[in-house]
TrEMBL record:
SUPFAM superfamilies xrefs: NAD(P)-binding Rossmann-fold domains (SSF51735)
Every Ketoreductase domain range: 7-191
Protein name: SDR family oxidoreductase
Family as reported in the entry's similarity comment: Belongs to the short-chain dehydrogenases/reductases (SDR) family.
Species of the source: Kitasatospora purpeofusca
Transmembrane segments: none
InterPro entries documented for this protein: KR_dom, NAD(P)-bd_dom_sf, SDR_fam
Record PANTHER family: SHORT-CHAIN DEHYDROGENASE-RELATED, SHORT-CHAIN DEHYDROGENASES/REDUCTASES FAMILY MEMBER
Length: 246
């Protein structure tokens, strides 16, 4: 029996990057997995098809994290279709870099809507369905822990908010046997932050290991948190960052 047999997971932003790796790993470990996406319909469908090919139930749903009604609706749709929800992975996020003088109201609203309001609303909607053994894992960032360089004020603000959400919710949901944790990735090779991009060597220089991580590094830690062996880990910030913030 696989570790997550019978569990249902919702991974936001599961069409590519870290979210895709997490979705496939949770399915490999036995879970049925729903992924949300914004624009990458074909890629999200391909992820769902891979999950189905593994013998699990996979489902790709377009749900703009910036739209509160879409967030609510997708959680309800998962609960209705699968009859339960066990694992929420708040992964969908947008990046932003730039000096504060050049950061406009539209940037601020967009980043806070997707990176802060949406994880809050996903958690709120999920809590209605999570039961004993339930899991909420949110993707923060090493930039919430260490400002190694300037230009990250908006992004770091959004990711630091996930620490407060995680710690407070862990207290609130602990008595129900539900754990809540935040993972702070370091530079991870995705389309958001390619390991061969112009800023890659610069970022690698701030890590202890001298290089980028892979999406599967984040997925492995989430798999541990999601399984039975993660039962005593809650309210925790877990760095998977190659030593970036250490
Ligand atoms: P990618 O840009 O590669 O993937 C982002 C994913 O989020 C896609 O599936 C995308 O969907 C989805 N998404 C973005 N906006 C929305 C939205 N409004 N509604 C629904 N889905 C949305 O990013 P990464 O995989 O690199 O990052 C994943 C998470 O990890 C983010 O929260 C990011 O901030 C965080 N992170 C990443 C690091 C890195 O170095 N890569 C480091 C630290 C944290 P679609 O394909 O449809 O656009």
């Amino acid at each position: 029996i696989a570790a997550l047999d019978g569990k249902v997971a919702l991974v936001t932003g599961g069409s590519r990057g870290i979210g895709e790796a997490v979705a496939l790993r949770l399915a490999e470990d036995g879970a049925d997995v729903v992924v949300t996406y914004l624009g990458s319909a074909e890629r999200a469908e391909a992820v769902a098809a891979k999950i189905t090919a593994m013998g699990r139930r996979g489902w790709a749903v377009r749900a703009d994290s910036a739209d509160p009604e879409a967030v609510r609706a997708v959680v309800e749709a998962v609960a209705e279709r699968f009859g339960r929800l066990d694992i929420l992975v708040n992964n969908a996020g947008v990046g932003h870099m730039g000096p504060i003088e050049e950061t406009g109201l539209a940037d601020i609203d967009r980043v806070l809507e997707v990176n802060v309001r949406a994880p809050y609303l996903f958690a709120k909607a999920a809590v209605a369905h999570l039961t004993e053994g339930g899991r909420i894992v949110t993707i923060g960032s090493c930039m919430a822990k260490r400002a190694a360089f300037g230009g990250g004020s908006l992004y770091a603000t959004s990711k630091a908010a996930m620490i407060g959400l995680t710690k407070s919710l862990a207290r609130e949901l602990g008595p129900r046997g539900i754990t809540v944790n935040v993972i702070h990735p370091g530079p991870i090779d995705t389309e958001l932050n390619p390991a061969d991009g112009p800023g890659a060597d610069f970022q690698s220089g701030f890590t202890a290991v001298g290089g980028f991580g892979r999406p599967s590094d984040i997925a492995a830690t989430i798999a541990h948190l999601a399984g039975a062996e993660g039962r005593y880990i809650t309210g925790a910030e877990i760095a998977v960052d190659g030593g970036f913030a250490g």
